[in-house]
Amino acid sequence: MLVTFSCPAYADITLFGDIAVRLLKMMGHSGTVPSALLADEIHDHRVTLEAAIKAEAESTATTRAEQRGEDEEPAVSLSHRALPLIELLKAAERDKCDVIWHSGT
């Protein structure tokens, strides 16, 4: 499953369903797809998401470095995967617009 996030202030963002639901739960949402955030809710959810991402990045940074072999490519971190969604939330907050998301295929 893919999940697409949309708001008038930013280009659509599509994430893998498991990552999208995880990020939604990290921001304090139920993880329901489809759903939405109203404009006046976005700031609190964005701040919560950024704090959760930072906490997870700090707790997993050393573990990943220790587990990775010399020839292995580094995994894409959750903090990198979250960047487009965080930028979309910032744009929606700035322009005071709602954010919706729905599942694709």
Describe the structure.
There is one protein chain. The N and C termini lie close together (5 Å). The chain has three helices and four strands; from the N terminus they run E-E-H-E-H-H-E. It has 105 residues and is an alpha+beta fold. The protein has one domain (2-103). The protein has a four-stranded antiparallel β-sheet with strand order 2-1-4-3. 51% of the residues lie in helices and 20% in strands.
List keywords for this structure.
105 residues, alpha+beta, 4-stranded antiparallel β-sheet
Number of contiguous helices: 3
The order of strands across the largest sheet is 2-1-4-3
Tally of structural domains: 1
The class by helix and strand makeup works out as alpha+beta
Helices and strands, in order, run as: EEHEHHE
Overall number of strands: 4
Quick one: biggest sheet?
4 strands, antiparallel
Oligomerization state: single chain
Describe how the helices and strands are arranged.
Layout lengths: L1 E6 L2 E7 H10 L8 E3 L4 H26 L10 H18 L3 E5 L2
Helix pairs in contact: 2-3
In short:
The protein is α+β, with helices and mostly antiparallel strands.
